[in-house]
Amino acid sequence: MLLESERDDLREKFRQNEVIIVDKKNELNNLLEELQKERRANLEQSQRLQICREQIESINQFIKELKPIKEQLDFKSNVTECLHELLVKTKLRIAESDDLLQELHDHYTALEYDVEKSKDIYYKGINQWQDEFLAARLREADVNLEFDKLKRDIATIKYDLEERRLVRVFQKNVLFLFD
Question: Does the keyword section mention Coiled coil (predicted)?
Answer without folding.
Answer: yes
